[in-house]
Amino acid sequence: MPILSISINAQENGKYDWSNLINAIVQVESKGNPKAHNPNGDCAGILQITKITVRECNNILGAAKSSIKYTYEDRYDAEKSKEMFILLQEHFNKEHNIEKAIKCWNCGFYNKNWRKCSIEYYKRVLKHYNKGAS
């Protein structure tokens, strides 16, 4: 059972459906391997989540007075990884901008120059995203 009541498979109760984008990013980041770990950094799991990303999710949840708290091990749990992705997108990307979602996932949500960063990463994810949309 997911920690958060966030729909990742369908638009439900007005929630945006991130599933196609999540699947595209998963293909680029880990090819779906929940045990994936980048030996050159602290990225882990299907979405290659960093420890700082886990802390940011917990900051958002704490500010909302939620009792939910993610752990670093949760990065290896596919469903919890997806929940963290959605939590961050809904917090930082309320307009559901796909380009922003992809680029900020790669270069950070606080990067004010997100439009100029991660161009090649954006193209790779978009290729998978467009395959899933057809």
Structure description:
It is a single chain. By secondary structure, the chain is an all-alpha fold. It has one domain: Lysozyme, CATH 1.10.530. It contains five helices and no strands. The chain has helices spanning 19-29, 51-63, 78-92, 98-107, 119-133. Helix 1 crosses helix 5 (119-133). The longest helix is centred in the middle third of the chain and has 15 residues, at 78-92. The protein is globular and about 40 Å long. The model is unreliable at 1-13 (pLDDT under 50).
For this entry, give a set of tags:
134 residues; mainly alpha; Lysozyme
The secondary-structure element order is HHHHH
- Unreliable runs: 1-13
Number of strands: 0
Number of helices: 5
Number of domains: 1
Give a quick account of the main beta sheet: strands, pairing sense, barrel closure.
none
Task: State the name of the first-level CATH class.
Answer: Mainly Alpha
The whole-number mean of residue pLDDT values reads 88
Q: Estimate the helix proportion, in percent.
A: 40-55%
From the helix content, strand content and strand pairing, which structural class follows?
A: mainly alpha
CATH architecture: Orthogonal Bundle
Percentage of residues in strands: under 5%
Radius of gyration: 14 Å
Distance between the termini: 30 Å
